[in-house]
Description:
InterPro entries: ATPase_terminase-su_N. The longest helix is centred in the C-terminal third of the chain and has 11 residues, at 60-70. 12% of the residues are buried. It is elongated, with a radius of gyration of 15 Å. Helix 1 runs antiparallel to helix 2 (34-41) and helix 2 (34-41) crosses helix 3 (45-54). The protein starts with a strand and ends in an 11-residue tail after the last helix. The protein has helices at 20-29, 34-41, 45-54, 60-70, and strands at 2-5, 11-14. By secondary structure, it is mainly alpha-helical.
Amino acid sequence: MACITLPDGTEIIDDSELYPEHQARRMAHEGQTPAEIADALGESVSTVQEWIDEEPYESPEAYWMRRYNAGTHLGAEYEDK
């Protein structure tokens, strides 16, 4: 898990590294083959390939900074009514 502090002081606890989909994308980004990733995660090569093809790898920090810069880092419950 990653603890990320955004420029406005918002603290985010990101658990995306716990999900095999995210792990597969990170491993592929680091140069591992789908077969190596499938073996490491105990998944089929076709499943791993689907995860890799769904979207590119993005680190938790990059994801939250992108949302922060877009103004979407806070959920609807934080919006002014």
